[in-house]
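Reagents: none. Just compute today. Outer membrane protein assembly factor BamC.
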Amino acid sequence: MMNVVFRLILSTALIPALAGCSMLFGQEGYFRDRGDDYLKADSIPPIIVPEGLSESSLDELYVIPSVARDSGEGVAGGVFEVPRPQELGTGQLTEKVKIQRLGESRWILINTPPSEVWPRVRNFLGRAGLQVAFTDATNGIIETDWLQFKTDPDNKDRYRLQIEQGVQPESTEIHVLHMSVGKDVPAGGQVNWPAGSANAERESWMIDELAATLASEESSGATSLLAQTIGGGPKVAILTTTIEPLLHMELPYTRAWATVGYAVQRGGFHLWDDDKTMGIYYVGFRQEPDEDEEPGFLSRWFGGDEDEPPPQTPYSLQQVLAQLQLEDNAQNRAIFADVLLQAQADALANAPGYLVVVRGDDNNIEVRVRDAYAQLLAPKQAQALLQVIRRNLI
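Predicted 3D structure written out:
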């Protein structure tokens, strides 16, 4: 009898407790699941900054980059497809540090994002005892304070390090600029940096020391929040226009020409001839076998057999350019102005290969691929070739 009474009392006591739990944890309770609340969220008016105050503090902390494309809806005559993901930089599992050279210019290339390289460069300068006088993480600039070499007591020196996005995804370039002035020149005020280093040997010293340090240390993976947007975005992108795909490059023309020349000698391309004055490479292409490549991706256009000899051509670039039979219209005049000035002979028979055309000014370069008669390729075919060039750039 006592057990029955105890159970009755316990049940009676649990009723308000369970009701209290539902008030706390139910759909209408205080601790309810709020996982779907965002579906009911409404837009609110943007914050209006009072007149006379700066809006810089309201900038986006994590900026969403804009998609590089023109006003067109895609390549003319094509159906939109989800693009294949861009390959990561070469050897992402193993960090590589290289010193690149083009003419008299030298810079450090590392296959690590700028946001990871920035704190490592700062650490290098600190360990080397080089005081930092100025930093601009947004633009990737670090300037040292004045220093004096023991072998040169009459002058004082300063370095400017420019950290930029590389041409490949998740890669970084470090450019070094050196200046030297007399030791009695006032150190205060704005520094007027020269266009080129005052002393190539001292520039090389900084590049060699920094490259050696980056190569010898193990990256911790730490990143700088302030340096998330270094470089302002990728230097190279494939754009789709209403006419044809283009490879857009934000590089000096000399470097763009050189790196495209490097790219069209690799990855299945074979360079037959080129003319820097005309800005054209004449190339052949044969798809290289790739065990990891999805079957049929490039082979639908280019085929290829590892036992076949490299493609050849019986014509020189000058012969090809002299006999293109181009229609004299605004588009062709903009791209092939120099070619149209030449005498047009009869068309060549079965001209093989492709013309890789480099056009534009510094930091606004366009690269397009045409057939050997300078006619438009099928959009997917042109884009596939540009993707190969894109992967081969340095």
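Residues 130 and 200 are 19 Å apart (CA to CA).
Action item: order primers for follow-up constructs.
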